[in-house]
Amino acid sequence: PAPCGASGRYGSQVAVFGTSLVSKLQGLTVFLVGSGALGCEFLKGFALMGVACAEGGELTVTDDDVIEKSNLSRQFLFRNHNVGQSKSLSAVNAVRVMNPGLRARALQDRVSPQTENVFDVPFWQRLDVVVNALDNVKARLYVDTRCVFFGKPLLESGTLGTKCNTQMVLPHLTENYGASRDPPEKEAPQCAVHNFPHNIDQCLVLAHSEFVGNFDTNARDVLDFLDKGAGWPAALAKANESASSILDKLRGDPRVCCGMAGGVDDVLASERCTSFEQCVGWARRKFESYFRNRIGQLLHNFPPDATTSQGVPFWSPPKRLPTPLSFDAADPLHMQFVMGAANLRAFMLGVPTPADCRDSVAIAKILATSAACSVPSFTPTTDASIETDNKEEDERRRAAAAAAQIDEQTQIDNAVTKLLAVKASLPADFAVKPNDFEKDDDSNFHMDFISAFGNLRARNYAIDEIEKFQAKLKAGRIIPAISTTTAMATGFVLLELYKQTLYGGDRFEVRRNAFANLALPGPNIILTEPAACAKITSGQRWDPDMYMDVDEVAYPDPHTLWDKIIVPAAASMTLSGLRDWFKAEPRKLLLTELYLPTADGGSGGVYSASLPSMATKNETNMSRKLVELIADMAGTPVTGGTLYPLTQAIFSTRS
């Protein structure tokens, strides 16, 4: 490693912090989760600070993503020749040029419950600090739970356009990341999205929803049906799907589809496509259904002069009176929709596409000459399902429509019988491939479909249309990353890394969380002390389920979420032994219920003293070893040296 003297590479740091701190930085074991915009900045900072650059130091970087062209503008460690390569590997190679002494290893594994064999107990136990550079809450929460479980400091940060924030999560000092949540994003009312949009955002919400439904969800449902056959509806019902939802998955709701089938029936039977011409015909009929038939049905139900039950004009602001569109092959937007939908359908069904599948003239020729592109006439019905913002009237219409329908179970049985016959006639090589939404690939037709759909929907309602690039930003909920915001966030975190290395678990009063907005004058920067972790004490608590105050005993009293009880010699302990261990001095706790982690991320009961239905199970499990119960519930064998959290254990005192 470079010398730590005043004249060495790290002379400036030595002048400010001293040789001891710089040496400690070089020996740190750091886990950086993510190597995108924030991750690149962190890696640059680590290399320049000398983090993990000496014997005993190690920097582990993991990111399962690959570099895309759109990343290059804000993830500065990457260049054109890196497109398609691993982010973590490319980033580590780039910072090694800055500091060849950096002891870093790059992994391509996502940090999740599925990779706990990679990021195992010994890995977490040897860490000094964890730094998050993630872009989603779910991953942040998982890393947070691991840091709490293993008692490791977590340096958290995030950016949103010109805004950024940092949070220091310090064992036994501060609250964890998951202790506070942002309010959920506001969603547009479904009646506005589906029937009464009044801005382009609502049009794009429906466009994205229909993309997912037609090219992703439908494909996955088909795969499930082909796998489970006649047992698929029962499997859905077991997963708490309603009969109407199962029916929608099987063949769609004709009151909504307006002239076309939906669900599995659309893919396998009514609109099964084996040629590109048939895909183009399907796309043309989808245009008719979305932008003409559905609008015609809406106007049939609510004519321009319609009034509400209070006598107010139905088409009052913010509602906009729509106009059906007539297909015109000379209109570029009409052709963009048909071209995008046809190519997506072909990809999903494995249909070969011609070389001119992007040529609107060639598509127009297919529309004009192929019998597969015929469009049936449509007549509005009286039982169409249309949601409004008047719940009382909606309920009345739904009840009237339901009364006229055949029993849903009978419809499900009929649909399954039809589809099973179709399944039996499918060729052996029949395959369906879902389309996972990817906004940044301009060759996959995803944004062609969504931008065309959103703008055609806007044209129905006389809403201003937008360019494809703007549609990408809105549909992908993209707020452009700004490099100065990223640099500021990582700068605040790296200052806290100095403090953490210097003080360890002390000097809570000098730690700071940061909140900044570079768009405001100043700019606006607020530094606050991290919130202290809450102490759990014995006392009365309001129980909303029992609707009364109940006495709760804290053990130990007090404790925080950072505290844990480790059961010794658990590898050979039975459930009976665990119960006796808790019962003994000084704990004196009576185990009344015990739940263990399951393979699906949930929990399952292995003991309950209060449920008569568990009596036989309790007796059987009492003589079994804990490791056997854990393995049965988790679906994987228990390996030596692994720590397993008890998902939930309920105790009572002797009193």
UniProtKB/TrEMBL annotation:
Pathway info: Protein modification; protein ubiquitination
Entries under InterPro entries matching the protein: ThiF/MoeB/HesA, ThiF_NAD_FAD-bd, UBA_E1_SCCH, Ubi_acti_E1_SCCH, Ubiquitin-activating_enz
Residues in THIF-type NAD/FAD binding fold domain copies: 10-501
Protein name (record): E1 ubiquitin-activating enzyme
GO terms, molecular function: ATP binding; ubiquitin activating enzyme activity
Native source organism of the sequence: Coccolithus braarudii
GO biological process, one term: DNA damage response
Catalytic reactions of this protein: ATP + ubiquitin + [E1 ubiquitin-activating enzyme]-L-cysteine = AMP + diphosphate + S-ubiquitinyl-[E1 ubiquitin-activating enzyme]-L-cysteine
Keywords of the record: ATP-binding, Ligase, Nucleotide-binding, Ubl conjugation pathway
